[in-house]
Amino acid sequence: MTTLTTAPAGRIQLRRADALLIVDVQNDFVPGGSLAVPRGDEIVPVLNRYIEAFDAAGLPVFATRDWHPADHCSFKAQGGSWPSHCVAGTPGAAFARTLMLPESATIVSKATERARDAYSGFAGTELEAKLRRIGALQLFVGGLATDYCVLSTVRDARALGFGVMLLTDAIRAVDVRQGDGARAEAEMLALGARPMALDRLSV
Ligand SMILES: [Zn+2]
Q1: Could you give the maximum distance between any two Cα atoms of the chain, in Å?
Q2: pLDDT tens across 88-118, in order?
Q3: Distance between CA 181 and CA 145 in Å, rounded?
Q4: Rounded CA gap, 20 and 162, in Å?
Q5: Residue 66: which H helix or E strand, with range?
Q6: Apex 13 CA angle, 12 and 18, nearest 5
Q7: Which of 3, 11, 33, 107 has the most CB atoms around it within 10 Å of its CB?
Q8: What letter does residue 118 receive in the DSSP assignment?
Q9: What is the pTM of this model?
Q10: How far is the centre of ligand 1, averaged over its atoms, from the C-alpha of 104 (Å)?
């Protein structure tokens, strides 16, 4: 007998070439920080569940961080667009307190030079080389903010040929213009990123 019900969304089993990539979950980007993403803190407990699953499966966890000099070109005082944020070594640049990164996590610092900004975790970093070295093929990407650093990181990941699972329950947008976050998500899916949420993860 034929049924017309929609097939349930497929379960996702973590595989050997998978890696978790957490983008810029830093104190300055969550409420209370100098460049807070609205409700950015809500993704931390969700990311912790993904971290737990990857760690339990013996799979790698990467975390990027904005890591600026105090006179970085992206700051308003230097003619940039943003308030001062994520100055290297300050509490604002530290990962969000409640983010449970495993000791084995690989930390990738970006936009560390005064004259150069970088939204993507791949821009001017060793991220690609490190992923290639361990044979990672598919990246599960979450973090902040959907419409800036997550978007740029996913663009580069796709251009470099990595599969991307976009963790739609573990991203939040700045939405400087209303709809920026939704447009960024649409662009990432158009680039071949596949959306998923925690309830699809087989553990
Ligand atoms: Zn920055």
Answers
A1: 68
A2: 999 999 999 999 999 999 999 999 999 999 9
A3: 8
A4: 12
A5: strand 61-66
A6: 100
A7: 33
A8: -
A9: 0.94
A10: 25
